[in-house]
Amino acid sequence: MTVYSFYIFDRHAECIYKRRWLPRPTSVGGKPQTQAGLGQTVRAGDDDAKLVFGTVFSLRNMVRKLGGEEDNFVSYTTSQYKLHYYETPTNIKFVMLTDLKSPSMRIALQQIYINLFVEYVVKNPLSPVEHPGGVGVNNELFEGSLEQFVRDQATFR
Amino acid sequence: MSTNKASRIGEEIWKTRVDKVNAELVTLTYGTIVAQLCQDYNSDYQEVNKQLDKMGYNIGMRLIEDFLAKSGVGRCANFRETADMIAKVGFKIFLNVAPTVTNWTSDNNQFSLIFDDNPLADFVELPDDGRAQDELWFSNILCGVLRGSLEMVQVQIEAHFVSDVLRGDDTTEMRVSLVRYIEDEMPPEEE
């Protein structure tokens, strides 16, 4: 299994954390691919974060219209990648893009929230309550643990 | 979700997933904060109440995440469920008390929490200056905590104390009113 990228969106619909591990499949868009190497952090506020947010936001609203307020979508699959989604009751959205072989990452995303985000971001007294532009999320403990967590989940090639 | 089920969840989390600290440490620390505020604001108790509420609000905004992480509960279906969740799970796991939910208005938008036991107020006597008894809400930080944490799950409320045993009342009662449910925020328009 390979993890391509990971995003966190806050309740203000802002991307507060974004990380890419491997280049995405080459057929995405006509844009030249940035060769994001292993473990490279890409600055928040880039275009694809907005697209991802728009997608999960609309999809989630549609799912709720069809399946009732309690319903939530878990993942979707294209011929190139799989998008996993987890949303907390506080409207923080966790999104992960992986390859097709990946099993459901819902539990993993929930673990990231409980064991990494709450522990290292929310409980960090020096981190602000809101994270405009990713302030407070991009701390060493969180990033390091996330890196480790994803490594444990995936076998990189 | 019934009140009983909420109680069971609260009990379970309290037993298995919460790090405990000495209760007296909490009581004394909180008492010191209130005493310091009274000093800082020259016994302007209205202002002290306001500051406590504000501190609570800031605590609540973070505490809710810890609450969700520990409890793993989802969204409440209605305000009655929210009330049980606050009383039987929230207060239980953070303060090991479970206030009684009562005095609902007929529209289900207002309820009272009756605290039989309030760990913040142990050993406390309000200042004997003839005003504190009428003006200071010693545990006002709790109102702020509720307001802050519920706001993060899109429930806007108003909370205030209506009686306190410290003031010589028979019970300690907090009144909580639903203001509105907050809509999801949309992403900003592209410029």
TrEMBL record, chain A:
Keywords: Endoplasmic reticulum, ER-Golgi transport, Golgi apparatus, Transport. Pfam families: Sybindin. It is found in: Endoplasmic reticulum; Golgi apparatus, cis-Golgi network. It comes from the Eukaryota. SUPFAM superfamilies: SNARE-like. GO terms for biological process: endoplasmic reticulum to Golgi vesicle-mediated transport. This is Trafficking protein particle complex subunit. It comes from Penicillium angulare. One of its GO terms (cellular component) is Golgi apparatus. The lineage of its organism: Eukaryota, Fungi, Dikarya, Ascomycota, Pezizomycotina.
Automatic annotation (TrEMBL), chain B:
PANTHER family: TRAFFICKING PROTEIN PARTICLE COMPLEX SUBUNIT 3. Belongs to the TRAPP small subunits family. BET3 subfamily. InterPro entries: Bet3 (IPR016721), NO_sig/Golgi_transp_ligand-bd (IPR024096), TRAPP_component (IPR007194). It is found in: Endoplasmic reticulum; Golgi apparatus, cis-Golgi network. This is Trafficking protein particle complex subunit BET3. One of its GO terms (biological process) is Golgi vesicle transport. SUPFAM superfamilies: Ligand-binding domain in the NO signalling and Golgi transport. One of its GO terms (cellular component) is TRAPP complex. Pfam families: TRAPP. Keywords: Endoplasmic reticulum, ER-Golgi transport, Golgi apparatus, Transport.
